[in-house]
Amino acid sequence: MPLLHVCNWRGCNEIIPQSHKYCDYHYRLHLQSPRYQNHIKKLQADRRYNQTRRDQEANRFYHSKRWTRTRDAVKNRDLMVSGASGQMLNDHDYIVDHVIKRDLCDDKFDMSNLWLLSRAEHNVKTKLEQQLSDDQIKTMTKTDWRRLINMKVGDNNG
Fold first, then answer.
1. Which of 14, 32, 57, 100 has the CB geometry, 3.0–4.6 Å to 23, for a possible disulfide?
2. Which of 55, 151, 31 is nearest to 103 (CA)?
């Protein structure tokens, strides 16, 4: 006998197979919801970015099994807390970032060179990296980045 559970749609009590999230009726509603549609658009935009704009070496690296395992280990180590702000991050707003960027560090999988940032913090850090020389970036510590990122994020919010 298959395992069963109640439809995940709030207020629906229909019993469905464990392998399904919603009953047929609510599954159709879910597919039409703006939240789901935005999720699909984001996935498509990410796929287009990976295929057309990201350099293919980076694309291979970030889709490798070793990176995925390392990324997940950092996520668990840091308990989904931003290394810059100390804020809790959710599964849709985090990036495992290289403190010293990937193409300048010796070991791309060195856990001491990896930390969690929100997408906004990561974008700020990326813009700051574009303004610095490679020699300056190589000397930056997490403390240095934390100070710069929080200064820029504070400027953008104030």
1. 14
2. 55
Helix (H, G, I), strand (E, B) or coil at 13: coil
Q: Where is average pLDDT lowest: 47-51, 63-67, 94-98?
A: 47-51
Find out whether 7 and 13 touch, Cβ atoms under 8 Å. yes
Q: Which amino acid is at 143?
A: T
Residues 6+ apart with CB under 8 A from 144: none
CB distance 96 to 72 below 8 Å: no
- Do the beta carbons of residue 122 and residue 95 sit within 8 Å? yes
The rounded distance, in Å, linking the Cα atoms of 9 and 28 is: 11
CB 84 within 8 A of CB 150: yes
CA distance 12 to 2: 20
Nearest-angstrom CA–CA distance, 127 and 132: 9
Residue 7, CA atoms < 13 Å, CB-side half-sphere: 16
